[in-house]
Amino acid sequence: MTSFNLEFTSINPLSKSKPKQIIVLCHGYGGDGKDISMLAINWQRFLPDAIFLCPNGPEVCNINPQGYQWFDLESDDEKKILEKSLIAEEKLNIFLDEALNYYQLKPNNLGLVGFSQGCMISIQVGLKKKEQIGCLIGYSGKIINQKHLSNNINSKIKIFLMHGANDEIVLPTHLLEAKEYLKQFGINIKTKLFNNCDHKISVEGSSLGLQFLKKNLL
């Protein structure tokens, strides 16, 4: 296989045929592609012609050196966080373009899925991308910087954001804020808040995400 700009774990199509869809899954802070590939394994038999690509974040995680981060979260400075996220955004964007080029598919054949920090960077990349992708699913994340995004939205993609009501790491209020914010731009956003759920992808969340992918990519 050709080399991509980010290391990744891949789950090949169950049909063993040429991929008809690409689903890119972005892990959370301190995780890696292998962690989130468990979600791909759960979805694989329902999307037999899809290839799942699970990239590692571009940096070794400062808190957990066994894992990766998309950008540093140790600072509370919004400007610094935005600057670092823009570097990660460029790298993920390159990865998506490399994948589309390698598998000879169009952007509308691509689904982008992210958890926690992976959700944050996915929202930023998906909405700013000039060539509109098929859909975006975000679990337990938030918009990194609303002011920056307001001036840079290029795609009104179909988005499904989900969050646990008991999440204490990324508060569920961010889900409601994202919904109201994105509606201002006429973006087709669907949301789901799970009761008795903390900072994780629930079984129901996985099932709803799969349905959303099937509806928008098949």
Give a written overview of the molecule.
By secondary structure, the protein is of the alpha/beta class. It has a single domain (8-217), classed as Alpha/Beta hydrolase fold, catalytic domain (Rossmann fold, 3-Layer(aba) Sandwich), CATH 3.40.50.1820. The protein has helices spanning 33-43, 78-103, 117-128, 146-150, 173-183, 203-217; strands spanning 8-11, 21-26, 50-55, 59-60, 68-69, 110-115, 135-139, 159-164, 189-194. The strands form 2 sheets. Strands 1-3-2-6-7-8-9 form a 7-stranded mixed sheet, with helices on both faces. Strands 4-5 form a two-stranded antiparallel ribbon. β2 (21-26), α1 (33-43) and β3 form a beta-alpha-beta unit. The longest helix is centred in the middle third of the chain and has 26 residues, at 78-103. The chain is globular. The model has no long low-confidence stretch (mean pLDDT 96).
Q: What topology does this entry show?
A:
Elements: E1 8-11, E2 21-26, H1 33-43, E3 50-55, E4 59-60, E5 68-69, H2 78-103, E6 110-115, H3 117-128, E7 135-139, H4 146-150, E8 159-164, H5 173-183, E9 189-194, H6 203-217
Parallel strand pairs: 2-3, 2-6, 6-7, 7-8, 8-9
Antiparallel strand pairs: 1-3, 4-5
- Can you tell me the overall shape? globular
Order of helices and strands: EEHEEEHEHEHEHEH
> Which percent range describes the beta-strand content?
15-25%
Secondary structural class:
alpha/beta
Q: What count of helical segments does DSSP give? A: 6
Total individual domains: 1
Distance between the termini: 25 Å
Helix content: 25-40%
Mean pLDDT: 96
Number of E strands: 9
Question: How are the strands ordered across the major sheet?
Answer: 1-3-2-6-7-8-9
Largest sheet: 7 strands, mixed
CATH superfamily, by name, is Alpha/Beta hydrolase fold, catalytic domain
C-alpha Rg (nearest Å): 16 Å
In CATH terms, what is the fold-level topology?
A: Rossmann fold
CATH structural class: Alpha Beta
